[in-house]
C-alpha cells in the first residue's frame, strides 16, 4: 500500500513470478539488474565509498507497484478485481 495506491496487496503478481512462483518471505526491491542466476543467493553490503551525488541521496517515493500478470493479457492487480470482472 502506498500513498497513491491504497489497495492492500502482496508483492507477488497474479500467477506468480516466471520461473520462481510466489514470494512468501521478506523481499527487497532493487533498481536496475543483478548479475547471476535467477535463484542464486546474493549478498548486499554497504558501499565502500560514500555516496554524495544528488541522485544517490535523494529520497525515493514509491507510487505504485504493478502486480498484474506478465503472461497473457495481465490487466488485473488483485484476485478480487479479477473475480468482479468474470
UniProtKB/TrEMBL annotation:
GO terms for cellular component: cytosolic large ribosomal subunit. GO terms for molecular function: RNA binding; structural constituent of ribosome. GO terms for biological process: translation. InterPro entries: L3_arc_euk, Ribosomal_uL3, Transl_B-barrel_sf. It holds the Pfam family Ribosomal_L3. Keywords: Ribonucleoprotein, Ribosomal protein. Belongs to the universal ribosomal protein uL3 family. This is Ribosomal protein L3. It comes from Zooxanthella nutricula.
